[in-house]
Amino acid sequence: MSKSPSAPPASSYQTALPGPSDPPILTAYAVPPSSETENFITTTTHSTRRYDASDGDCGSQAVSGLLNLCWIVFGGGIPVAALYLVGGLLFCASIIGIPCGLQLFKLSLLALFPFGSSVEEYERAHSSPATGCVTLFGNVLFLPLSIVLLVVHLVAGLIAACTVVGIPFAFAHVKLAQLAMCPFGRDAVRTGGYEHHTTTTTTTTT
């Protein structure tokens, strides 16, 4: 009866495996040259800001609301806003005066709620550029009325400041004078914060 072949000793398995002291085995692979050209990726990032009125502090909004109420009741906010509104309607009725009428509408809104609002450049308020030539031409066309409104608001602000208790109303007239002087290219926005928006453009060049 034949005997089955015995298994090789355990030492033969150990010698077949590389030990920790053995040098690493390096294997080289031949990579065929690629016929495709290398791609270059260019990334351009644009950062913009957008106005967000919800970022305002609750305490400052409450104070602004109280001052606006006092302005409407005691400072003549409703008559001033009504005059600007009627003037804007008259300008719009002439068709050719629609651009000036729209500026008077902005003044009417600011005259109703001057506290908690700020006069900003159009680019900063809306994150979009304004047309320079149109803005300049509109302000030059609006200049005679701007001078009259500027004088009226400055005189009214000086009178309000002389009463001491009317100093906040004087600042409201200064805001109105600021917007009335150059209404084109500017806008009245609620005081708040600005959100940052990032736009990324990726270009691949072969």
What would you say about this model in short?
The protein is α+β, with helices and mostly antiparallel strands. Helix content is 52%, strand content 17%.
Q: What can you tell me about this protein's structure?
A:
This protein has 206 residues and is of the alpha+beta class. The protein contains 7 helices and 4 strands; from the N terminus they run αβαααβαααββ. The chain has helices at 10-16, 58-74, 77-93, 98-112, 122-126, 132-162, 167-181, and strands spanning 40-52, 117-121, 186-190, 193-205. The strands form 2 sheets. A two-stranded antiparallel sheet has the order 1-4. The protein has a two-stranded antiparallel ribbon with strand order 2-3. The relative contact order is 0.19.
Keywords:
206 residues, alpha+beta, two-stranded antiparallel ribbon, two-stranded antiparallel sheet, globular
Q: Radius of gyration, Cα only, in angstroms?
A: 37 Å
Shape: globular
Largest sheet: 2 strands, antiparallel
Q: How big a fraction of the residues is strand?
A: 15-25%
Low-pLDDT ranges: 10-17, 46-56, 193-198
| β-strand number | 4
How much helix is in the residues? 40-55%
Q: How far from one another are the termini?
A: 76 Å
What's the order of the H and E elements?
HEHHHEHHHEE
Number of helices: 7
Q: Please list the strands of the largest sheet in the order they lie side by side.
A: 1-4
Mean pLDDT: 75
Structural class of the helix and strand makeup? alpha+beta
